[in-house]
Design goal:
Elements (H helix, E strand, L loop, with lengths): L3 E5 L5 H12 L5 E7 L5 H9 L3 E3 L8 H14 L4 E4 L8 H6 L4 E5 L14 H9 L4 E8 L9 E8 L6 H24 L4
Parallel strand pairs: 1-2, 1-4, 2-3, 4-5
Antiparallel strand pairs: 5-6, 6-7
Helix pairs in contact: 1-6, 5-6
Bound molecules: 5-O-phosphono-beta-D-ribofuranosylamine.
Length: 196
């Protein structure tokens, strides 16, 4: 099947771009239809504009009340007929009303081998610092379904990287990110083929 994908992204949006490129090249059958960002200056919004994908800045600056904000997001998901939400570096918690509206079809990518190194404060460089400090010999990325707890939904697929003794958190972050783009595209392809 083919999905109408909405991306939620707060920063650069390189994962979002990799998935858009895979849709354009025919590697994926899905169609990117919507981009939502809580950061009006994000690379993700800039990429959406360049790609001609409708994009919306939605944050506490545009909607002070959580309920209004979530209702507006759901109205956009309805309007654009979205049947898959892809979180790609989205720094806000997804409300249960959105997960319910999507019947659970909400994916996230996390830059570690969940269930280790997940949870509320495990984002960005915090994750890679914790992995290095713990002396792990490998790390990676995880694509999972989103539920109401941070990083706890069903795991769909993981990528792995070897950690060298000389790796800094920054080096590890780059190594993991380099595997994320392919991993995210692979998982969406598996979903399109009904293989997960
Ligand atoms: C990635 O490392 C992802 O695992 C995490 O946020 C980062 C997003 O990177 N959730 P980008 O914005 O896709 O470049």
């Amino acid at each position: 099947m083919s999905f109408n994908i909405a991306f939620f992204a707060s920063h650069n949006g390189s994962n979002m771009q990799a998935i858009i490129d895979a849709c354009k090249s025919g590697r994926l059958k899905s169609i990117p239809v919507l981009v939502i960002s809580n950061n009006s200056k994000s690379g993700a919004i800039e990429r959406a504009v360049n790609e001609g994908i409708p994009s919306f800045h939605i944050s506490s600056a545009t909607h002070q009340n959580d309920e209004d904000r979530n209702e507006y997001i759901i109205s956009l998901l309805k309007h654009y007929n979205v049947n898959l939400v892809v979180l790609a570096g989205y720094m806000k918690k997804i409300d249960n009303s959105i997960i319910d509206f999507m019947n659970g079809m909400v994916l996230n990518i996390h830059p570690a081998l969940l269930p280790k190194y997940g949870g509320e404060n495990m984002y960005g460089m915090n994750v890679h610092k914790a992995v290095i400090e713990a002396g792990e010999s490998e790390s990676g990325a995880t694509v999972h379904f989103v539920n109401s707890n941070y990083d706890e939904g069903k795991i769909l697929k993981q990528s792995r990287v070897i950690i060298e003794k000389s790796d800094t958190p920054e080096i590890l972050a780059n190594k993991v990110l380099a595997t994320e783009h392919q991993l995210y595209v692979d998982v969406i392809s598996l979903l399109e083929h009904g293989s997960v």
